[in-house]
## 1
Amino acid sequence: MPRRRPNGVGLEVSALGLGCMGMSQTYGVPDDRESIATIHRALERGCFFFDTAESYGPFVNEELLGRALRGRREEAVIATKFGWEYEGTRRGALNSKPEHIRRVVDECLGRLKTDRIDVLYQHRVDLEVPIEEVAGAVGELIQAGKVLHFGLSEAGAGTIARAHEVCPVALLQTEYSLWERHIEQEILPAIRERGIGLVAYSPLGRGFLTSTALPAEEYPESDYRRHDPRFQGDNFTANTAAASVVREVAARREVTPAQIALAWLLHRGEDIVPIPGTKRRVTLEENLAAVDVVLDAEDLRRLDEALPPEAVAGTRYPEAVMHMNGR
Ligand SMILES: NC(=O)c1ccc[n+]([C@@H]2O[C@H](COP(=O)([O-])OP(=O)(O)OC[C@H]3O[C@@H](n4cnc5c(N)ncnc54)[C@H](OP(=O)(O)O)[C@@H]3O)[C@@H](O)[C@H]2O)c1
């Protein structure tokens, strides 16, 4: 697996990371044994950039990753996130107050069974706390050696610029894929100008860009896609038609649609690191093989023309939570 240095601060990661969220929530039933085997297989294959968050589970996803990496911590780059209050396992309000961040980081370190977090993201921007205070608090944790790099998730261009003034932002994590290209106008140029790398989450469109997507109503109630506007009714039909080009290019290249979706991201710049999520070794193997897929100008043109930024029907989150993005 090739490596990438997606930013100006020297952080080195594998060209593809592994999103661990789905091992504990969002898509289907957890299977810890297979998830841990998947994390071990990723390490064997040179994929060593693992993405988790306090909120995944909550808590149990970090514990799972900590368990999987026991005795192998030195081989991994761990990214986690803070951002909400919890009462037990019930998620409350956003909270990025400095004292809260400090407490959460100590708890994350305990769950991950490590003495340092390689990348600490603010999961969502908290409008109650100026971003300068957040950056200052993370900067102090970096000074203390508990955190190595600062990241933001789903932040807007103005927030990124202000944060970066106080503490260099190493990575922005946001949704980016062949069917979610909203960052291309403003955010991508803003981070490139500052040497900030991009971690592309949901690079497979939450599974839509693979050959396994189903209409919303066919997923169980606990599966996020049942509520994702892009998987609903007419949106699903329109999006399936638009994404047929991914299947066509995959057939031409004799690879899978998922590999095309990941290869497209890898072709968009050395500063982009997709973190496809899976809890299965067989799917991991398929996704990692995308690093060997070469797309030519004709493939890229067909994908771009068939899936321009405005091609997707439906917002990427339900309306009730969409406002938390890009601010
Ligand atoms: N910062 C944020 O707010 C945020 C939000 C969402 C996600 N994330 C991070 O980004 C990571 C990746 O995003 P994601 O998991 O939402 O979406 P994704 O990677 O686009 O898709 C994951 C879904 O696709 C399935 N899948 C993966 N590879 C496949 C393949 N080759 N063929 C068929 N199905 C395949 C997975 O199934 P199985 O699991 O059953 O294999 C899972 O249901 C997450 O794990 C998380 O760490 C961050």
Note: The chain has twelve helices and twelve strands.
## 2
Amino acid sequence: MKIAVTGATGTQGGAVARLLTERGHEVRRVTRNPKHPDDVHGDFDNPDSLEQAFADVDGLFLMTPLSGPSEASQGKAAVDAARHVPHVVFTSATNADRGTGIPHFDTKAEIERHLAAVHPHWTVLGPAAFMSNKGFVALPIPPTLKLHLIAPEDIAAMAVLAFEQPARFHNRRVDIASDQLTGPEMAAIRGTEFVEYSLAQAETYSPDLAAMFRYFTETGLDLDIPALHAELPEIAWHSYANWVTGRA
Ligand SMILES: NC(=O)c1ccc[n+]([C@@H]2O[C@H](COP(=O)([O-])OP(=O)(O)OC[C@H]3O[C@@H](n4cnc5c(N)ncnc54)[C@H](OP(=O)(O)O)[C@@H]3O)[C@@H](O)[C@H]2O)c1
């Protein structure tokens, strides 16, 4: 298959592009600054460039950059530019479709609704917090809260499975996580101490992220990891310990 991958120079798209290539698919890496032989120019601020980047492919891996309120219009324009692409796999966030009130989740929900309304064949992935995030040992969450986490490689495995088994994931939304740990458990794996800071402090640098951590703490994500892994045994889900050790 020939697959266009947005965000291919970033965490999710990079992992997806690498796995697609490993599995023998043809990859079109969409970036604002083409450098790699598989790169094509595409800019979320210029839907015409996306239309060209998405021409004549069998599938599109669509991520949206964190760009505040404009994420929704950029994402919806990207969906429109992909109207001829046979299968769009959009990566959103866990429980983004639940009306969480978290600004960067609600923008993704708007893109999800648009995709489902206008495209005949889509899959939405709802990844949890990335294991690759920096600063996981200092968080505005209580030390007893177990945070849902996902390895970027597991997002890629899920996306590639969706492209390779389109009927199984036809017009489905799947929230995905690899493991679930408390801050102190994550810190112990990293050989350090967990530092809890307040949501008021988090507000001062990002009201959006503070809203997300408040939701995680007060409502909690609805994602049953054992049930998910039982449904998708072909994915070699990483534990956080294995993922960190693999990068040591
Ligand atoms: N971090 C988490 O825990 C987490 C969890 C769930 C969901 N998410 C979501 O994941 C998304 C970010 O994904 P990521 O972490 O994989 O990305 P990333 O590593 O931050 O990389 C950003 C990517 O976006 C591309 N990009 C930025 N602006 C662009 C534009 N105007 N046009 C075209 N491409 C553009 C960049 O490509 P070029 O610079 O090469 O153009 C780059 O490949 C966000 O929407 C975030 O909310 C994150």
Note: The chain has a mean pLDDT of 96.
## 3
Amino acid sequence: MSANWKNRLLEHYRDHARDLPWRVRPGSNRRPDPYHVWLSEVMLQQTTVATVTPRFARFIEKWPEVSDLASASREVLLAEWAGLGYYARARNLHGCAQQVVALGGFPEDEAGLRELPGIGAYTAAAIAAIAFDADSVPIDTNVERVVARIEGIEGPLAETRSEVHDAARALWPKERAGDFAQAMMDLGATICRPKTPRCGECPVSGDCAAFATGAPEAIPAPKVRKARPERRGTAWWIERDGAVWLVRRPAKGMLGGMAALPGSEWTDGAWPEEPEQAVRHVFTHFALTLAIEPRDVPPEGEGWWQPIDRIDEAGLPTLYAKVVEAMTLVS
Ligand code: SF4
């Protein structure tokens, strides 16, 4: 393998880097704002660049500095996060912003960053490399795939992950770690695509073991999919004078702290009989079907009447937004 492939990749990145609002152009003498890098990395966990880009812009407009985010109310922050999913991220975001303000700024190395709420190994390495140019190796799924292909590590990633990560650390340059990280991420996102890698446009094809096999898409081997468990529950639709009764979910657990419709627990298994009206939502680890049951009286406990024509302001997560859509379409 020629040592030049890393330079070719960096040159390709300089000329073709994706224009993303949390980045600075490669070659710029400005460093990216650590607040922007952190916020984008948290938003991008499990969420696509296309979805994150406008939401990131809204966050930054609303809370231009990390101190603004730290002093926001948790309910407003959760409402702004609505629809992005994985709501533990939003709760950690708030706690993390407050700690960063207390520390007087973001720590500049992985160890310090990992002390903060919601920052795991990958995110710490990404912030350290991209915002501070530290000698860190952020390995996301795109980078895993690119490294597995360049190095010709064939098995499913679930079995070869530690080998792939060792290989990534061995090949990562000590200098320009942040640019290299973003170059690898861009290569994986735009050229070295999972099913149809565009090797003809790839700056490193001459040094890629997968390309040399003639079937680069076969590396890494696809994972064996397990069936997703099905759960079911009931959402209660309690409507009065153009308003619907909402509650706040308990702070811990799925959709913790989010606005919600009241309803039953979610349990495993099938319906004794199919509900008349239901919505289905697929979470990462299970699929949920929520039957919709109109009721007249709110359950005991706290809640509030939310005007239906201002339902957007409640910050309902997608699951409950689907129920609202189903109910307002029929009424
Ligand atoms: S040559 Fe093809 S398989 Fe190899 S890194 Fe480039 S796009 Fe991916």
Note: The chain has three domains: 32-132, 135-225, 230-330.
## 4
Amino acid sequence: MDITAESVLQRTPEQLAGISFNCACGLAHRVHMRKMILEEGALHKVRELVHELNLGRKALLVADSASFAAAGKALAEQLSRQGMDVRLSVFPEEQWYADEKAIVRVLIDVEPDTELIIAVGSGTINDIARFVGFKAKIPYIVVATAPSMDGYASTGSPILVNGFKKTYSLASPVAIVGDLTVLRQAPRDRSAAGVGDMLAKITALCDWLLASVVEEEPYCDVIAGLMVKALTGIIGSVRSIRDGEERATKLLMEGLVLSGIAMQMIGHSRPASGAEHHISHYWEMRHFAAGHRTELHGIKVGVATPIVLKLYETLLEADAAALPMKEKSAGQVAEWERRIRQSYGPLSEELIGMNRSLLLNQSELDIRRARLIGNWPELKRKLREIMDLAPDVKSLLRQVGAPADPGEIGVSPEELGDALRMAKEVRNRYTVLQLADQLGLLERFAEEMASLHGD
Ligand SMILES: [Zn+2]
Ligand SMILES: [Zn+2]
């Protein structure tokens, strides 16, 4: 059967699992994850799923103390009763970081004849299991315990190596299981973080559109359409998500898994991550270097989203296409390098090298500006459409019980200003931060935001 764009847009994440199709955008999209079960009592279907996907009988179940209590223990007992050989690798405390030590701990528990890894947990446990499964060439499935982040179906794991976070490109889980009974009982800050990670897609999608015009990056209307559909449902259900209602929890979890599926389809993280994620990474690095405990990922990107939206508003009001783009002077480049060294310490030389390609000369800037001018009315209209999905992101964050201002998550006005100036160097990727910089507006915006949040 031919799969059309319209039929893809009608599908739930469960129905998108395992599909591949040639898209109108010119790319062939493929979802590597083969199966998803999201319903009440889904834990009882794990044995059947393992059998159906032919994943063997000998499994290593990876969990931490919290996720073991929430679902891991019951699942291990049940699978053992059903004839599987389940070995446990359970962290004695709640695991906050995927680092070298955690990975080796799980690797020690992998046996030569382990056929399957079952990750029971959310972000960190999933990241560890993905890494170990990929390196040991063992397929893994995830049993989700909280709708807290969008990494379930993603193919990369951020791992702390020597104290710095590095994202490794690995593999998708073969299957994702979400038991709504378990997900609804997750602590409230987890679903609040999940909503934050979804609201962040508003600015991520704006950045993707912007990059498709200014940098002529490939863009897919079908994938963006899937994300908008998921976002719309979640935005309309924020209070019910906070209250742990079944239908709303399902919508949130579907949106989070869909974000990973969208990344699998397009082969990069554009549909799910933009400037708001870069700002959050910047804060995280600063806080980690200072020895502070960091907030949940979704909480940080949620706080960064209204700030990036404000920058979009500023550029739309200033009629960005009417403004000049000027090449940086030698003095400005030297200042740029100085700031990177100051912000990024041991990573700075690598980041300077990586980002030099984004420092454009005047003729390269003229080309970008011509693209912006040529597409401005349509780009403006499309950006506005996405931004209008949630005219008041801060109030949505508050409704779900999440912090909405940088100060509430320990980000000082100075760290806010620095993040706006420097977060674009975290990844070699074009976002609204680069556009504002090219138009000479970024410094003033950073100062304004820092003083606004300093009162
Ligand atoms: Zn995220
Ligand atoms: Zn496409």
Note: The longest helix spans residues 188-214.
